[in-house]
Write a structure and sequence with these properties.
This protein is of the alpha+beta class. The protein has six helices and 16 strands. The strands form two sheets. Strands 1, 2, 3, 4, 5, 6, 8, 9, 13 and 16 form a ten-stranded mixed beta sheet that branches. InterPro entries: NAD/diacylglycerol_kinase_sf.
Length: 311
């Protein structure tokens, strides 16, 4: 007999809860903020909106279902099941945080604080959960399959991300590496013409960013706009990826001829480390990083896994 669906409510600790954990009481937190010209009441109001949204979603779960909650900090230790319907209650970024731990489960994004979030991934309100939960568990649910990016090292370590993966120094040092492309060649205008040999380039920079169409609304876009790039950034469901080198430095031994591009299906960006230590992390979560050392190679490409976001 198959298991009943399980609603997994993903949330994160609120600012107010963090303040109480640090200062002990509401009064002490209020004093701390007032000394800096801020009001604790605004922070508590946002906390209460999140709590109400979580309670409303929990109350909308069908009685025949199971349900559980997982906080963002515990995602890497939580075991998702194939029968789960994942309900992310919070910000757009929380959907990205959860995406890397999923294997095809449908995801419903609930905006816990409307007006403060862009709503790209948290597209729904808590009041819609009663309708969306059984719909998402059904065979005919319509979902957007969003492309993800993965980094795979030569010793088989793997990292997934929904928005982008950054490879660079863990601090403010310079990253040194050799950059190249594997798979089908770049299209004309972004690298060698078809049939030419792909050459790797030694580089010194502050890091490399490889991202998806979903990430093209955030960090990728800021780099794209900063350099007035002519690249056509991919859409969220597009299988292409965009990549940028941050602040590449020309020298007698390092070049700057390959600082941006698109990765088509079957292509990967290859980076061989020439520094004591580099890190690769996804979606801004530095605590869950790959640690790369001299001579190690990491390849970045579109992942086979996709995020199934209920529209």
């Amino acid at each position: 007999m198959s298991l009943a669906p399980r609603a997994v409510l993903v949330h994160r600790t609120t600012e107010y809860e963090e303040l109480l954990a640090r200062h002990g009481t509401h009064g002490q937190a209020a004093f701390f903020l007032s000394a800096r010209g801020r009001s604790v009441e605004a922070v508590r109001e946002r906390h209460e909106r999140v709590c109400r949204a979580l309670a409303e979603v929990a109350g909308a779960v069908p009685l025949s279902w199971r349900q559980t909650r997982v906080e963002r900090a515990d995602l890497d230790r939580f075991l998702f099941g194939p029968e789960d319907v994942v309900v992310v209650v919070g910000q757009d970024g929380l959907v990205a945080n959860a995406a890397k731990y999923l294997t095809g489960q449908p995801v419903i994004g609930i905006d816990a604080d409307p007006g403060r979030n862009a709503g790209v991934l948290v597209r729904h309100r808590a009041a819609q959960a009663r309708r969306l939960l059984p719909y998402a568990a059904g065979a005919g649910a319509t979902v957007d399959e969003l492309t993800m990016v993965e980094a795979v090292t030569d010793d088989a370590q793997r990292l997934l991300a929904l928005n982008e993966i950054y490879v660079g120094p863990p601090g403010h040092q310079t990253a040194r590496y050799t950059l190249g492309l594997d798979g089908p060649k770049d299209r004309p205008g972004r690298g060698p013409e078809p049939g030419q040999t792909e050459e790797s380039e030694p580089q010194a920079s502050s890091g490399v960013l490889v991202g998806t169409g979903t990430g093209a609304t955030g960090w990728l876009r800021s780099l794209w706009e900063q350099r007035s790039s002519a690249l056509a950034l991919p859409a969220p469901a597009d299988s292409r990826l965009a990549w940028f080198v941050r602040e590449a430095w020309p020298s007698p031994t390092t070049g700057t001829s390959r600082v941006e591009g698109l990765l088509d299906t079957g292509q990967s960006l290859r980076l061989t480390v020439e520094s004591d230590r580099l890190v690769a992390f996804g979606d801004g979560v530095e605590s869950d990083a790959l640690h790369l050392t001299w001579g190690q190679t990491v390849r970045l490409a579109a992942a086979e896994a996709r995020l199934r976001l209920v529209g």
